[in-house]
Write a structure and sequence with these properties.
two-stranded antiparallel ribbon; binds iron/sulfur cluster; 2 helices; Alpha-Beta Plaits; mainly beta; two-stranded antiparallel sheet; 73 residues
């Protein structure tokens, strides 16, 4: 039987996010990215493969706009 490996990764809850970029700055693995797309600020998980699930971004977010979610790979 084949079991997939469970991993926790960051996920930005876009409608709670104020785009302060604290999470982008604290992540030493450069997982998160902030950009302006069609005149709108967006903060997103750009490199989920690099996320270690350390939770530093969750802890620093002032808006509770990041959660750790299960990923099976
Ligand atoms: S720390 Fe929270 S509010 Fe700030 S950009 Fe990241 S997800 Fe958005
Ligand atoms: S959980 Fe850790 S590695 Fe993943 S995005 Fe947040 S700070 Fe970066």
């Amino acid at each position: 039987m084949f079991w997939k490996k469970r991993k926790l990764i960051a996920n930005v809850i876009e409608d709670k996010c104020c785009h302060c970029r604290c999470c982008v700055r604290i992540c030493s693995h450069h997982v998160l990215e902030a950009a302006v797309v069609q005149g709108k600020n967006v903060t997103f998980v750009n490199r989920p493969d690099r996320c270690t699930g350390c939770g530093k971004c969750v802890a620093i977010c002032p808006k509770e706009a990041i959660e750790l979610i299960d990923k099976y790979c």
